[in-house]
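Annex B. Sample input.
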Amino acid sequence: MQYDPIKRTLGRVFNRSTGLRKLFYRLLDLLLLRAWHMHRALRKAFSHIGHDRPSILDAGAGFGQYTYWMWKRLPASNIMAVDVKQEQVEDCNMFFSRLKADGVRFEVADLTAFERQEAFDLALSVDVMEHIEDDTGVFRNICLSLKPGGILLISTPSDQGGSDADDETDESFIGEHVRNGYNRQEIIDKLNQAGFSKVDARYTYGVPGNISWKLSMKYPILMLGASRWFFILLPFYYLIAFPIACILNWMDLSMNHEKGTGLLVKAWK
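Annex B, continued. Sample output.
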């Protein structure tokens, strides 16, 4: 499944006004389990930083929903959000300029070549590393770009079916993935080798989270991939699926998982 065409279609629908864009961000925050886990991790990271003017790197910002979430909570922060897609960056800069978010800027950048020596207190990378072949180079660049004591947060699929693939020979559900997921110890080792002094990696998307992902994301994506006419049916579908997905997301957030299809990784420089 090629996800980018569907993302572009969603962008065209919700970019028609500032209000629709904010609604889109809110829906992503509620539907996406990774957002639930990442928001909790970000709150803890903000507390660790200990001041309200941190410098933050959103490495692979996509639609910009995490940049928006952070800016709303720390409006005095300086946030650099980077992405490889020129169209996405221009769109996000236009939206945030309308919000008069002077401390937020989006730039086109390739993370395999991006480095800002000791510039950031915090970096996050959400559903990005599974798209990049040279992940060790990116980890090294981000480590160099963090200040001493800085934190990196990563959300990525695990190798336990995180890309809806049972093993490395299976095709990822998302066609743009270059790997089907990370082994927990593998990503810890890579981050340690990149220069991080401490790494904690925990499974997300246990049994309830995996069911939620199928209800809230996989099945709608498959429908939209089959025909754009399913946009008409989506509101009715989510009237049923949304409350169930929220309950499952809450359950996943509340549990410690011995295994799961996602990984939430925290690394300290």
